[in-house]
Each structure stands twice: as structure tokens, then as C-alpha cells.
């Protein structure tokens, strides 16, 4: 899998990334230091999943097979299916965020502009 348009994070970096976000009126934003945010605006993987183009996660069901059908592709196994999904979205300007030290695959496809706005290092 290409590392172009791929952001690798450790579990600690991933958790810090999520903790640094808030969601208000269905829009994700970065928290500003020194500002208090209500608990209902906290972002966890389930909240982020509503903003992802596709995902493969131990915590959140990303429905790899449903996503594959949505992009009108077929595959023989889940690894092949995910590779096709990643290629499809990377070709459309998205970025792949991978948690490199997770016990199970933790990979999220986000629009590049969203990733940039949320503070991820997008080239």
C-alpha cells in the first residue's frame, strides 16, 4: 500500500488527536487551548466515523463489504476489499490515517481538507 497520502499515528497520538477535537452542529473542529467544551461535544471513534469516507476499526464497524459495494467493486477477501477501498478514496484526494501500533487494523479514510482542518499533517 502506498505511503503517499498516508498519515501514521501511534495509539497515543490517535487518542490525543481525538481528544483535541469537538463536534458541534455535525461539524468537527479542533479544540482551542483554554476553552471549555461541554462533554456532549467530545469526539470518540463513533463520532469521527460519521465524518470518515470509510474505515476499518476494531472499535467501530466500518462495513468494508458495504463500502466495497458502494464503489461498485468486488473482492475475494476483506484485505483485498480494503485495498480497493483505500485505492478508490486515495485516487479521489482523501488521506489514509493509520494507527501503526494497534493490535487490530485501525485505518480511517478522511477527506484531505477535513484532515488538514483538524490538524493532521497532510501534504
Describe this structure in words.
By secondary structure, the protein is α+β, with helices and mostly antiparallel strands. It has one domain. The protein is built from 5 helices and 6 strands, in the order βαββαβααββα. The strands form 2 sheets. The chain has a 4-stranded mixed β-sheet. α3 packs across α4. The chain is globular and about 50 Å long. The two termini are 17 Å apart. The model has no long low-confidence stretch (mean pLDDT 94).
Index terms:
21% strand, 123 residues, alpha+beta, HTH Mu-type domain-containing protein, DNA binding, 5 helices, 4-stranded mixed sheet, Mu-type_HTH
Q: Which SSEs are present, and which pair or pack?
A:
Layout (H helix, E strand, L loop, with lengths): L5 E4 L1 H9 L1 E4 L2 E4 L14 H5 L4 E3 L7 H7 L7 H13 L3 E6 L7 E5 H6 L6
Protein name: HTH Mu-type domain-containing protein
Organism: Deinococcus aerius
GO molecular function: DNA binding
Summarize the structure.
The protein has 123 residues and is of the alpha+beta class. The protein is built from 5 helices and 6 strands. It has a 4-stranded mixed β-sheet.
Strand order across the largest sheet: 1-5-6-4
User: Structural class per helix/strand content?
Assistant: alpha+beta
Tally of discrete structural domains: 1
Through-space gap between termini: 17 Å
- Low-pLDDT regions: none
Approximate helicity band: 25-40%
SSE string? EHEEHEHHEEH
Assign an overall shape: globular
Largest sheet: 4 strands, mixed
Mean pLDDT: 94
What percent of residues are in strands? 15-25%
Q: Helix count, per DSSP?
A: 5
Number of strands: 6
Radius of gyration, CA atoms, in whole angstroms? 15 Å
Amino acid at each position: 500500500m502506498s505511503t503517499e497520502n498516508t498519515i501514521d499515528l501511534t495509539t497515543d497520538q490517535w487518542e490525543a488527536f481525538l481528544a483535541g477535537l469537538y463536534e458541534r452542529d455535525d461539524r468537527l473542529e479542533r479544540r482551542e487551548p483554554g476553552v471549555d467544551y461541554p462533554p456532549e461535544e467530545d469526539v470518540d471513534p463513533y463520532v469521527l466515523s460519521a465524518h470518515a469516507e470509510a474505515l476499518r476499526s476494531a472499535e467501530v464497524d466500518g462495513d468494508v463489504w458495504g463500502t466495497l459495494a458502494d464503489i461498485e467493486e468486488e473482492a475475494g477477501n476483506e484485505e483485498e476489499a480494503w485495498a480497493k477501498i483505500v485505492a478508490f478514496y486515495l485516487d479521489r484526494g482523501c488521506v489514509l490515517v493509520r494507527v501503526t501500533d494497534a493490535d487490530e487494523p485501525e485505518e480511517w479514510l478522511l477527506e484531505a481538507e477535513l484532515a488538514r482542518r483538524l490538524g493532521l499533517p497532510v501534504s
